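Suppose a colleague, Dr. K., hands you the sequence of a protein chain of 252 amino acids and asks what its three-dimensional shape might be. Before reaching for any lab equipment, you can write down a predicted structure in C-alpha coordinate form. Begin with the sequence itself:
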Amino acid sequence: MNIDDYARHFLETVRQSDYSVALTGAGVSTDSGIPDFRSPNGLYSKISQETFELDFFLNQPQEYYKVAIDYIHPLADKEPNITHQMLATLQNQNLLDAIITQNIDGLHQKAGATNVIEFHGNVTGFHCIHCNKTFDRVYVDEQIRTYKVPYCQCRSLIRPDIVFFGDMIPLESLNAAQLSSGSAKVFIVMGTSLQVHPAAGMASLARRYGARLLIINREPTAMDTLADWVCHTELTAFSQAVMNALAANGHQ
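The predicted structure, expressed as C-alpha coordinates, is then:
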Protein backbone atom coordinates (compact mmCIF):
# COMPACT_ATOMS: atom_id res chain seq x y z
CA MET A 1 0.00 0.00 0.00
CA ASN A 2 1.15 3.53 -0.68
CA ILE A 3 0.66 6.36 1.82
CA ASP A 4 -2.72 7.39 0.35
CA ASP A 5 -4.00 3.82 0.66
CA TYR A 6 -2.83 3.73 4.29
CA ALA A 7 -4.61 7.02 4.96
CA ARG A 8 -7.88 5.82 3.41
CA HIS A 9 -7.73 2.50 5.27
CA PHE A 10 -6.98 4.38 8.52
CA LEU A 11 -10.03 6.61 8.05
CA GLU A 12 -12.28 3.67 7.17
CA THR A 13 -11.22 1.89 10.36
CA VAL A 14 -11.77 4.96 12.52
CA ARG A 15 -15.17 5.68 10.91
CA GLN A 16 -16.36 2.16 11.75
CA SER A 17 -15.39 2.57 15.41
CA ASP A 18 -17.72 4.03 18.01
CA TYR A 19 -14.85 4.85 20.39
CA SER A 20 -11.33 5.66 19.19
CA VAL A 21 -8.30 6.73 21.21
CA ALA A 22 -4.87 7.98 20.13
CA LEU A 23 -1.64 7.66 22.13
CA THR A 24 1.02 10.16 21.05
CA GLY A 25 4.71 10.46 21.85
CA ALA A 26 7.69 12.67 21.09
CA GLY A 27 7.67 11.82 17.37
CA VAL A 28 4.44 13.78 16.94
CA SER A 29 6.14 17.04 17.99
CA THR A 30 9.52 16.78 16.23
CA ASP A 31 8.16 18.58 13.15
CA SER A 32 7.26 21.51 15.40
CA GLY A 33 10.96 21.90 16.13
CA ILE A 34 10.87 20.00 19.42
CA PRO A 35 13.63 17.40 19.64
CA ASP A 36 12.80 13.94 20.90
CA PHE A 37 14.85 12.59 23.77
CA ARG A 38 16.95 9.67 22.61
CA SER A 39 17.84 10.25 18.94
CA PRO A 40 21.41 11.39 18.06
CA ASN A 41 20.31 15.06 18.05
CA GLY A 42 17.70 14.60 20.77
CA LEU A 43 17.36 16.50 24.02
CA TYR A 44 19.61 14.08 25.89
CA SER A 45 22.48 14.97 23.52
CA LYS A 46 22.29 18.54 24.90
CA ILE A 47 21.25 18.06 28.52
CA SER A 48 21.74 15.27 31.02
CA GLN A 49 18.94 12.77 31.55
CA GLU A 50 19.23 13.40 35.29
CA THR A 51 17.71 16.86 34.64
CA PHE A 52 14.35 15.07 34.60
CA GLU A 53 14.90 13.14 37.83
CA LEU A 54 12.88 14.27 40.84
CA ASP A 55 15.81 13.95 43.26
CA PHE A 56 17.98 16.13 41.03
CA PHE A 57 15.29 18.82 40.91
CA LEU A 58 14.66 18.79 44.68
CA ASN A 59 18.38 18.77 45.57
CA GLN A 60 19.60 21.16 42.85
CA PRO A 61 16.65 23.32 41.74
CA GLN A 62 19.03 26.07 40.60
CA GLU A 63 20.74 23.66 38.18
CA TYR A 64 17.39 22.39 36.91
CA TYR A 65 15.97 25.86 36.28
CA LYS A 66 19.19 27.01 34.60
CA VAL A 67 18.60 24.30 31.97
CA ALA A 68 14.81 24.60 31.97
CA ILE A 69 14.65 28.28 31.07
CA ASP A 70 16.67 27.61 27.89
CA TYR A 71 15.53 24.14 26.83
CA ILE A 72 12.25 23.21 28.50
CA HIS A 73 10.09 26.30 29.07
CA PRO A 74 10.42 27.45 25.40
CA LEU A 75 8.56 24.30 24.30
CA ALA A 76 5.42 26.29 25.11
CA ASP A 77 6.32 28.77 22.32
CA LYS A 78 6.24 26.17 19.53
CA GLU A 79 3.38 25.82 17.06
CA PRO A 80 1.35 22.69 16.22
CA ASN A 81 2.20 20.79 13.05
CA ILE A 82 0.03 18.88 10.58
CA THR A 83 -0.19 15.80 12.85
CA HIS A 84 -1.56 17.82 15.77
CA GLN A 85 -3.99 19.47 13.35
CA MET A 86 -5.07 16.14 11.84
CA LEU A 87 -5.83 14.61 15.26
CA ALA A 88 -7.73 17.75 16.32
CA THR A 89 -9.72 17.58 13.06
CA LEU A 90 -10.63 13.94 13.73
CA GLN A 91 -11.81 14.97 17.19
CA ASN A 92 -13.84 17.86 15.84
CA GLN A 93 -15.52 15.48 13.36
CA ASN A 94 -16.34 13.03 16.18
CA LEU A 95 -13.98 10.39 14.77
CA LEU A 96 -11.56 10.48 17.73
CA ASP A 97 -12.76 10.45 21.32
CA ALA A 98 -9.59 10.97 23.36
CA ILE A 99 -5.89 11.72 22.98
CA ILE A 100 -3.47 10.35 25.56
CA THR A 101 -0.15 12.15 25.19
CA GLN A 102 3.27 11.58 26.68
CA ASN A 103 4.27 15.07 25.49
CA ILE A 104 4.47 18.07 27.81
CA ASP A 105 4.30 20.78 25.12
CA GLY A 106 0.53 21.44 25.01
CA LEU A 107 0.49 21.42 21.21
CA HIS A 108 -2.56 19.16 20.90
CA GLN A 109 -4.60 21.79 22.76
CA LYS A 110 -3.04 24.59 20.70
CA ALA A 111 -4.23 22.77 17.57
CA GLY A 112 -7.79 22.71 18.92
CA ALA A 113 -8.01 19.24 20.47
CA THR A 114 -10.19 19.07 23.56
CA ASN A 115 -10.19 15.72 25.38
CA VAL A 116 -6.40 15.51 25.90
CA ILE A 117 -5.06 13.38 28.75
CA GLU A 118 -1.59 14.66 29.65
CA PHE A 119 0.19 11.60 31.01
CA HIS A 120 3.43 13.40 31.88
CA GLY A 121 2.01 16.81 32.81
CA ASN A 122 2.70 20.02 30.93
CA VAL A 123 5.39 22.66 30.63
CA THR A 124 3.08 25.65 31.01
CA GLY A 125 2.00 25.20 34.64
CA PHE A 126 3.82 25.47 37.98
CA HIS A 127 2.84 25.06 41.62
CA CYS A 128 4.26 25.43 45.12
CA ILE A 129 5.42 22.13 46.61
CA HIS A 130 4.11 23.19 50.04
CA CYS A 131 0.85 25.16 49.67
CA ASN A 132 0.04 24.07 46.10
CA LYS A 133 -0.56 27.64 44.87
CA THR A 134 -0.34 27.80 41.07
CA PHE A 135 1.92 30.07 39.02
CA ASP A 136 2.39 30.85 35.33
CA ARG A 137 5.53 30.79 33.26
CA VAL A 138 5.90 34.60 33.16
CA TYR A 139 6.20 34.78 36.96
CA VAL A 140 8.49 31.75 37.18
CA ASP A 141 10.87 32.91 34.42
CA GLU A 142 11.09 36.34 36.04
CA GLN A 143 11.96 34.72 39.38
CA ILE A 144 14.62 32.55 37.74
CA ARG A 145 16.26 35.56 36.06
CA THR A 146 16.21 37.53 39.32
CA TYR A 147 16.84 34.90 42.00
CA LYS A 148 17.89 31.81 39.97
CA VAL A 149 15.17 29.73 41.71
CA PRO A 150 11.44 30.56 41.88
CA TYR A 151 9.87 30.60 45.33
CA CYS A 152 6.26 30.95 46.47
CA GLN A 153 5.13 33.70 48.84
CA CYS A 154 5.13 31.01 51.55
CA ARG A 155 8.90 30.68 50.84
CA SER A 156 8.64 27.14 49.49
CA LEU A 157 10.03 25.95 46.17
CA ILE A 158 7.92 26.23 43.02
CA ARG A 159 8.02 23.17 40.79
CA PRO A 160 6.86 22.58 37.20
CA ASP A 161 3.70 20.58 36.46
CA ILE A 162 5.72 17.96 34.58
CA VAL A 163 6.14 14.37 35.73
CA PHE A 164 9.76 13.78 36.71
CA PHE A 165 11.39 10.37 36.86
CA GLY A 166 10.54 9.39 40.42
CA ASP A 167 7.18 11.15 40.37
CA MET A 168 3.87 9.32 40.38
CA ILE A 169 1.71 9.67 37.27
CA PRO A 170 -1.14 12.02 38.30
CA LEU A 171 -3.97 9.73 39.44
CA GLU A 172 -6.58 11.66 37.47
CA SER A 173 -4.58 11.23 34.24
CA LEU A 174 -3.86 7.55 34.92
CA ASN A 175 -7.51 6.78 35.64
CA ALA A 176 -8.74 8.69 32.58
CA ALA A 177 -6.16 6.97 30.34
CA GLN A 178 -7.05 3.51 31.63
CA LEU A 179 -10.76 4.15 31.24
CA SER A 180 -10.36 5.45 27.68
CA SER A 181 -7.96 2.66 26.67
CA GLY A 182 -10.18 -0.05 28.10
CA SER A 183 -13.21 1.39 26.24
CA ALA A 184 -11.48 1.80 22.88
CA LYS A 185 -12.65 -0.10 19.83
CA VAL A 186 -9.73 1.38 17.88
CA PHE A 187 -6.46 2.39 19.56
CA ILE A 188 -4.04 4.49 17.49
CA VAL A 189 -0.33 4.80 18.35
CA MET A 190 1.58 7.71 16.79
CA GLY A 191 5.14 8.92 17.28
CA THR A 192 6.17 6.64 20.13
CA SER A 193 8.28 3.48 20.26
CA LEU A 194 6.14 2.21 23.18
CA GLN A 195 9.12 1.81 25.50
CA VAL A 196 8.16 4.23 28.29
CA HIS A 197 5.79 2.77 30.87
CA PRO A 198 3.13 3.05 32.13
CA ALA A 199 2.04 5.06 29.07
CA ALA A 200 3.01 2.23 26.69
CA GLY A 201 0.87 -0.10 28.78
CA MET A 202 -2.25 1.71 27.56
CA ALA A 203 -1.79 0.10 24.13
CA SER A 204 -1.53 -3.33 25.77
CA LEU A 205 -4.62 -2.61 27.86
CA ALA A 206 -6.65 -1.57 24.82
CA ARG A 207 -5.52 -4.68 22.91
CA ARG A 208 -6.43 -6.90 25.86
CA TYR A 209 -9.96 -5.47 25.87
CA GLY A 210 -10.38 -6.15 22.18
CA ALA A 211 -9.43 -2.89 20.48
CA ARG A 212 -7.99 -2.88 16.99
CA LEU A 213 -4.42 -1.58 17.30
CA LEU A 214 -3.10 0.79 14.60
CA ILE A 215 0.54 1.92 14.78
CA ILE A 216 1.95 4.80 12.74
CA ASN A 217 5.60 5.49 13.55
CA ARG A 218 8.83 6.16 11.70
CA GLU A 219 10.66 3.31 13.45
CA PRO A 220 9.48 -0.15 14.53
CA THR A 221 7.85 -0.26 17.98
CA ALA A 222 7.75 -2.78 20.81
CA MET A 223 4.21 -3.81 19.81
CA ASP A 224 4.37 -4.05 16.01
CA THR A 225 3.86 -7.81 16.07
CA LEU A 226 0.66 -7.42 18.13
CA ALA A 227 -0.83 -4.67 15.99
CA ASP A 228 -3.62 -5.19 13.48
CA TRP A 229 -2.03 -2.65 11.18
CA VAL A 230 1.39 -0.96 11.09
CA CYS A 231 2.60 1.92 8.92
CA HIS A 232 6.28 2.91 9.15
CA THR A 233 6.48 6.39 7.69
CA GLU A 234 7.08 10.04 8.46
CA LEU A 235 4.11 11.29 10.46
CA THR A 236 3.88 14.53 8.48
CA ALA A 237 3.39 12.66 5.20
CA PHE A 238 0.83 10.32 6.74
CA SER A 239 -1.11 13.13 8.43
CA GLN A 240 -1.17 15.18 5.22
CA ALA A 241 -2.53 12.15 3.35
CA VAL A 242 -5.28 11.75 5.99
CA MET A 243 -6.17 15.46 5.73
CA ASN A 244 -6.31 15.13 1.92
CA ALA A 245 -8.59 12.10 2.21
CA LEU A 246 -10.85 13.95 4.66
CA ALA A 247 -11.07 16.92 2.29
CA ALA A 248 -11.78 14.68 -0.72
CA ASN A 249 -14.47 12.85 1.24
CA GLY A 250 -16.04 16.14 2.27
CA HIS A 251 -16.39 17.18 -1.38
CA GLN A 252 -17.84 13.93 -2.66
